[in-house]
Design brief:
By secondary structure, the chain is α+β, with helices and mostly antiparallel strands. The chain has eight helices and nine strands. The strands form three sheets. The chain has a four-stranded mixed beta sheet with strand order 4-5-7-6. α2 packs across α3, α5 packs antiparallel against α6 and α6 packs across α8. The longest helix has 15 residues. The termini are far apart.
């Protein structure tokens, strides 16, 4: 099978990320043969290896679209410092891509992804952009940051200065806080948000 035919078959899957097993099925090849075919396509600049067994369909990987494919079958969305930067809440560009799903850290050719877990009651609060990126709203990204900053890792204690965007929805932030089932945990989340927001945090009282 030549490269153009193989690429055409893979493109008919209409997926930005293809794993070797899916490619094997689409190409009618063994996993070993499909891996060799994908490697040849990568050498030609037609696909890009993300990590072992995962391939981006094209030469320019869009890292913001990757989390849901990296965590599949578990759902995920961009949040925390990554979403806060993209939403204009913090200026500093994170060195890694932060997302919410099942806790793990994933290294790819497009960068490192730091994935963090929240309970089902507070999972969500994202919008899908026109580019297919599942991105937390500014309100939910702030909530996720406060919710997760109490962990033992202390990973989120050094947050850059926050500047709330025009149209920030306080009611939306309070709605997520209200979803925290435990009164004690809810109080701690509010306290962390107040520390993050400074004088503005008084609006959560």
């Amino acid at each position: 099978m030549n490269a153009p035919e193989a690429l055409a078959r893979l493109q008919r899957l209409r997926l930005p990320v293809v794993d070797t097993a899916d490619a094997a099925a689409a190409l009618g090849q063994s996993s070993f043969a499909a891996s060799k075919t994908l490697s040849r396509l990568a050498a030609a600049g037609l696909v890009t290896s993300i990590r072992h067994g995962s391939w981006w369909m094209g030469s320019n990987v869009e890292p913001y679209r990757l989390p849901e494919f990296l965590t599949a079958p578990m759902p995920s969305y961009l949040s925390l410092q990554t979403a806060l930067h993209l939403r204009g809440v913090v200026e500093q560009i994170p060195e890694v891509f932060y997302a919410v799903s099942r806790t793990q850290r994933i290294a790819t050719s497009a960068g490192s992804f730091s994935i963090h877990h929240v309970v089902p009651e507070v999972f969500g609060g994202f919008e899908e952009t026109s580019e297919g990126v599942k991105l937390a709203t500014a309100e939910k990204a702030l909530f996720d940051l406060a919710y997760l900053s109490g962990g033992r890792s202390r990973l989120f204690t050094g947050t850059p200065e926050i500047e709330l965007p025009a149209g920030f929805r306080w009611r939306e932030l309070k709605r997520w806080v209200a979803r925290v089932a435990s009164v004690r945990a809810r109080t701690l989340v509010v306290q962390r948000l107040q520390r993050l927001l400074g004088s503005e945090g008084g609006r959560l009282a």
